[in-house]
Design goal:
The complex is a heterodimer. The radius of gyration of chain A is 23 Å and the shape is globular. In chain A, the strands form five sheets. In chain A, strands 7-8-9-3-10-11 form a six-stranded mixed beta sheet, sandwiched between helices. A five-stranded antiparallel beta sheet of chain A has the order 2-1-4-5-6, covered by helices on one side. Chain A has a five-stranded antiparallel beta sheet with strand order 17-21-18-19-20. By secondary structure, chain A is α+β, with helices and mostly antiparallel strands. Chain A is built from eight helices and 22 strands. The mean pLDDT of chain A is 87. The relative contact order of chain A is 0.12. Chain A has two domains: 221 residues, P-loop containing nucleotide triphosphate hydrolases (Rossmann fold); 117 residues, Beta Barrel (OB fold (Dihydrolipoamide Acetyltransferase, E2P)), CATH 2.40.50. Chain B is mainly α. Chain B has a single domain, classed as MetI-like (MetI-like fold). In chain B, 78% of the residues lie in helices and 0% in strands. In chain B, helix 1 runs parallel beside helix 5. Chains A and B meet through strand 7 of A and helix 6 and helix 7 of B.
């Protein structure tokens, strides 16, 4: 992506101003509701006209207040996936998918129909009307429709917000697959830190219509620990469990993590909050079982009133947090060996 | 039961002909005006809206009189048309114009309601997918406002069948030439032995209107299935 954007827009009492240069492929736009994320999308897609400034994408001027240029949305080649799929109800799934493809100049068609259908696994849905699709299927079709229009840039405007957690984590792999397979740069808009970490490499943080900072999703997540009720959500990928009685056991991080049987898929991603990881100087169980991971502190960082700990558990990484008093009491420092204890109920399955 | 003269049958046929022509002629204009009023911002939009709705509130006779002033032989437009050999006043074409003007606001209102029900994001999506404004108008807005178009057309057709005030002013009441069902009923009702025929024509009117309403429901259901 080669995007230069330097624009201003006043919408009543709300003032939007962004000035940045983006040259990464997987960019996130993070901010609370009302921070200007959707305004950003509308201005970039040409659905709203800035008051002043300029927008350049791959060297092409899309808007220039000075020169009086405003390229209409249909000539920008910027695909948009909104929060709701907005599929055309009078067309079938195939008709929806091909809407943009048919209007794309043949020389720009890099993503072809069969390849996309394969990646998004839409083959069985093609002849169906959109009324018969589930929420996740509708969003997959909306993503496919935008990708098939062969855009230079894809704007994903909170595409997962309208889905429940289960569907959300069903759609994420498809979004990632599309991004990997067809190498279309995207800007992913969300107010969910978890989605940012799963989808993006670089994040623009918006606040009250202005760009506050640019950083990585990981860095942002760590810095937000102190301000978040949920803490830092560690993603734990586990596979090949061993079942015993009513429990399943996954080998992870040099130890064994046990979960109730109903949670045990063959391959799954779990989230565990930094607040749910108990840090101890000595192992409470000499057998080494019971969700206890021997860890080494490889990083410490401020997290509001607490201290964030980056733990290395036999090659796997976890973020935990402790109060300053606890850190002092346990003599925690970089390089110290400690034990991280995770309650089985703290491991929540995502996918 | 019905003892109609040939001029009565002609009145029935003429009514259908006038209603059909008025609706067919108004439909493309009605769609365009509804599109303008729904999706475009321009100076004087509110006045255009008010002007278009005038025939809804004005007495039809007033509308007819204005039309007479506009297309009568003494008017600039009427004179211009006359030099081209086009004569409108006291022809069935004048009845079509009268019906079109009086029914037009109903048509536009229904289509606008249909258009306003379309999610704006859907239209924006079509634009980001490469559709120019006229492409989006034909491939997204038109099919999605089909219910409004059907409802507006039916309303206008029914209104045209019943048009009296404006028609009698610009087209007159000439049996076999410009006499429609309402005008014929008016004639029979004012003559001493015309009561039975007037009632028969009233029944024909009711049957025609019921037929339109039935057809309207059918089309709405069909449109609903597709959208």
């Amino acid at each position: 992506m080669d995007l230069q954007i330097s624009i201003k827009k006043a919408l009543g009492s709300f003032h939007f101003q962004v000035d940045c240069l983006l040259n990464r492929e997987r960019v996130g736009l993070f901010g609370e509701s009302g921070s200007g994320k959707t305004t950003f999308v509308n201005l970039l897609a040409g659905l709203l006209m800035p008051d002043s400034g300029a927008i350049f994408l791959e060297g092409q001027c899309l808007y220039s207040g000075e020169k009086g240029i405003q390229v209409p949305p249909e000539r920008r080649r910027i695909g948009v996936v909104f929060q709701h799929p907005h599929l055309f109800p009078h067309l079938t799934v195939k008709g929806n998918l091909l809407f943009g493809f048919k209007r794309c100049a043949p020389e720009n068609r890099k993503v072809d129909f069969p390849a996309l259908v394969e990646v998004l696994k839409l083959g069985d849905l093609l002849k169906r009307g959109i009324a018969n699709l589930s929420g996740g299927e509708k969003q997959r079709v909306a993503i496919g429709r935008a990708v098939l229009s062969n855009p230079r840039l894809l704007l994903l405007d909170e595409p997962l917000s309208g889905l429940d957690d289960n569907l959300k984590f069903q759609v994420i792999p498809y979004l990632k697959a599309v991004s990997d397979q067809f190498s279309i740069p995207f800007i992913f808009i969300s107010h969910s830190m978890m989605e940012m970490r799963l989808m993006t490499d670089w994040v623009l943080v918006m606040e009250q219509g202005a760009l506050r900072e640019q950083t990585t999703a990981e860095d942002l997540a760590r810095r937000k620990i102190g301000h978040s009720r949920m803490g830092y959500l560690n993603l734990v990928k586990m596979k090949n469990p061993r079942r015993s009685g009513e429990w399943v056991f996954y080998s992870w991080g040099g130890g064994m993590l046990s979960l109730p049987l109903k949670e045990g898929a063959e391959e799954a991603i779990f989230e565990v909050s930094s607040k749910d990881i108990l840090v101890m100087k000595r192992s409470p169980d000499s057998s080494g079982r019971g969700n206890i991971l021997k860890s080494r502190v490889i990083g410490m960082f401020p997290a509001g009133n607490e201290i964030g700990l980056e733990l290395d558990c036999a090659g796997e990484h976890l973020i935990a947090e402790v109060t300053k008093d606890t850190a002092a009491e346990l003599e925690i420092c970089r390089g110290a060996e400690i034990f991280a204890v995770i309650k089985p109920s703290a491991l929540r399955p995502l996918i | 039961m019905f003892h109609f003269l040939s001029s009565d049958y002609e009145a029935i046929l003429l009514s259908l002909q006038v209603a059909f022509c008025a609706t067919a002629l108004s439909l493309p204009c009605g769609f365009a005006v509804a599109y303008l009023l729904t999706y475009r911002s321009f100076r004087g939009k509110i006045f255009l809206d008010m002007f278009l709705n005038l025939p809804l509130t004005l007495p039809p006779v007033v509308v007819g009189y204005f039309l007479l002033l506009l297309i009568g032989k003494n008017s600039w437009l009427g004179h211009f048309l006359y030099t081209w050999g086009i004569e409108l006043i006291f022809t069935w074409k004048a009845a079509v114009i009268a019906s079109a003007v009086v029914g037009f606001p109903l048509l536009v209102r229904s289509i606008r309601l249909g258009m306003e029900a379309i999610d704006e994001k859907m239209i924006q999506t079509s634009r980001t997918l490469g559709a120019k404004w006229y492409d989006a108008m034909v491939t997204v807005i038109l099919p999605l406002s089909l219910k409004g178009i059907v409802a507006g057309s039916s309303l206008m057709f029914a209104r045209s069948l019943g048009e009296f005030g404006a028609t009698i002013i610009v087209a007159g009441n000439i049996p076999g030439v410009t006499q429609t069902i309402p005008l014929a009923i008016f004639d029979y009702a004012s003559s001493p032995r015309g009561e039975a025929t007037a009632l028969s024509l009233c029944i024909v009117s009711v049957v025609l209107t019921l037929g339109i309403l039935f057809f309207h429901e059918l089309l709405i259901r069909q449109a609903g299935k597709k959208v």
